[in-house]
Amino acid sequence: xxxxxxxxxxxxxxxxxxxxxxxxxxxxxxxxxxxxxxxxxxxxxxxxxxxxxxxxxxxxxxxxxxxxxxxxxxxxxxxxxxxxxxxxxxxxxxxxxxxxxxxxxxxxxxxxxxxxxxxxxxxxxxxxxxxxxxxxxxxxxxxxxxxxxxxxxxxxxxxxxxxxxxxxxxxxxxxxxxxxxxxxxxxxx
Length: 189
Known about the structure:
Elements (H helix, E strand, L loop, with lengths): L1 H34 L11 E7 L3 E3 L5 E8 L5 E4 L16 E6 L22 E4 L4 E3 L4 E2 L10 E10 L14 E3 L3 E6 L1
Parallel strand pairs: 2-11
Antiparallel strand pairs: 1-3, 3-7, 3-8, 4-6, 5-9, 9-10, 9-11
């Protein structure tokens, strides 16, 4: 008798379970995105990335500090990753959030030195930028830590912000690629 009842229940509930599993598999992402905090309609072009130097002329061994800032110039808040992990242009997307292309006085592109893996950013690195609000990197990046400036003369730097993180946390984070305006500096020996 128990076998007959369980067999009937099995036949009635099996299709329901199968449909439930298929529904979660197909619609699960949509359900997750409905529940996840979202950037309330901020567009990618509303975010501006800037990279600035503290001065335009440096002595031979003086730190060349670059500061990163993201600003929301839109009308709606947008989630951003404010870690600004500095990596090589050639590194995989998950190993950089900012990279710089530096051109020497000779016109040669400088290679990036000493890459390292940083892992995923902490949840604290994601912040909701309100309209008109900006977020600045916690500390400047000394370009001498990753590039060798052997020549005397004028250098150009173009920094690029490219976030790929945040969705794994359920956040609708800005995921575009933004190039800052090129900045110039001179090395004097």
